[in-house]
Please model this.
Amino acid sequence: MRVSTITEPTHPLDMLTADEIARGRAILAREGRITEHTLFPNVLLVEPDKDAVRAFRPGDALDRKILFVSLERDTGVSTETVVSLADDAIERTTTVPSGEFPYGQPPYAWEEFDAVERLVKASPEWQAAMRRRGLEDRMEHAFCGPLAPGYFGYEDEIGRRMVRSLTFLRESPGDVAWSHPVEGLLVTLDLTSGKVVSIFDEGDVATAEISGRYDTEAVGPARTDLKPIEITQPEGPSFSVDGGEVSWQGWRFRVGFSSREGLVLNQVTYRDGDEDRPVLYRASIPEMVVPYGDNSRNRYWISYFDAGEYNLGKNANSLALGCDCLGVIHYFDGVVADDFGNPMPIPQVVCMHEEDFGVLWKHTELGYRPDVRRQRRLVVSYFATVGNYDYGFYWYFYLDGSIEVEAKATGIVFNGSGVPGAEERHRLEIAPGLFAPVHQHLFCARLDVEVDGPDNYVDEVDVVRIPMGEENPYGNAFTWSRTRLEHEGGRDGNGAAGRTWHIGSKTRTNAVGKPTEFQLIGQDLPVLMADPGSSVYQRAGFATKHTWVSKFEPGEYWPAGDYPNQHAGGAGLPAYTADGDDVDGGDIVVWHTFGPTHLPRPEDFPIMPVDVYRFHLKPYGFFDRNPALDVPDWSAPAEGGSCCSHEGHGATGLPVYGKD
Model:
């Protein structure tokens, strides 16, 4: 096991270091920008101009800048301040217009979460609601969850820093609260005033009592017939790491990390001969939305933006060998800022290792021994826990020049209590008296593409059936269509047509005279199910289409906009693409929405097995032939021959006439 910790940046895109965050905060303090009420919901690297990054050479001076988003708890005013470390000065300051339409607030700070439970439990109305239900003896250990409220234009909420809270019971401090939801009790708070604004208290549904514990004491002894698997690489891994730069089997990229979006991969290239050919300038999953389909008063408002409201990266896990990652592991430490703007290290936040991945290619020619090579992939991943759910984000690089992106969802489904055995329209009973609402997890990947340079296009490719007739006399023929996406906008998937999107170079062709391309292959699962007239449809516009193409503009990183928390909607991708700029060539960004529509099941209780959702970036004429022909044949034993043959016969059972 090895760990990389960047203590001093050597490249413009290196992740922020602890020293840089501390220096930036010191500048703010020196200039009188920090008070006893100041929190820092976000502290992010300001990335330099692309041309400056491309022109950078090792040893050049760095001009590092940091965006500090501050919040004054006593007034609710938020401010963006950009600090130049090179100049040791504040470069600019802007007030976040949270009080002006379409509003929007920075993400929540952990300090605010702590305040929510204290304020709720101190409320006489909440205490009365608990006593009415006969739960006065369980108030001490109750968990009052801090939840983003959405936006509905309510007069007592617009422009104010609000939060809602649902109550869950614990039998003891170590109990799992999520399986004991108090139904019909909803508290809304103003975080700036520190007051409860309203309490909804209705109904007398009994709180589910089934235990949600999944520890050894609750589950019982572990099975004993599952044998261990050990992964060894006696000669070490095939990758090399230099600071934040990784090289592996032709692939080269830089590992970054931020408090908002988590893992970022920069300057992804592939070594082809003596040339490092660019594929992606920057890649990440900067937003996701979790809209719930339950229209009850308790949950109609739920549509969590886990990056823009909660900070995915700040909630990242410190990963453990043998649990989160298996094999010969290389970790990257990360640093984010805590609520007060001080550096907060997250040890081993990114995990990297190699995995065998079955057959890469194989063929058995009649009468000859089979040829087969093993596929291998490089895995770069991190995990974040946001409340009840845990999300793993995985980037896979393959020997054949392809990339795969996965999001893994696990953790505990969000539940409510109900009448055991009841049939409901928007919730499913996953345990006696415990009902989980239907919901979605819609992730959005941002792919700042650079296929053989920054002059790219996107073609939408469908397979097409041909009616029988003069063009198809036997009825067996089919073909394909290509549609150039000329202007910015979003596109729907079409599984029946096998729809893919080809991202190609306007300046380079391959051996058959066609533009070099990568093919985006999605799963074509449902996009946002909410009605177009709903609040969440306006706020999560990115999730209404599978794929978007936009012209690159500095600062356009966030699918739901800079501040989706309590935002009225229309920000992010709908705004980025509203002008319909030309994207047939030039510097473009491709965005892809993917993820599950979850109809919970009993097997998701008490903790959900991992669900996996993915998309691929596959070379399509990027290479002149299979780039993995030179992968070694690891099947050959030292004395010669092949494990795929037996006593002179091929896999067909026929005599072998050829030679190896």
Notes: The two ends are 38 Å apart (CA to CA). Residues 643-660 have pLDDT under 50 and may be disordered. The CA atoms of residues 640 and 660 lie 9 Å apart. Residues 18-30 form the longest helix (13 residues).
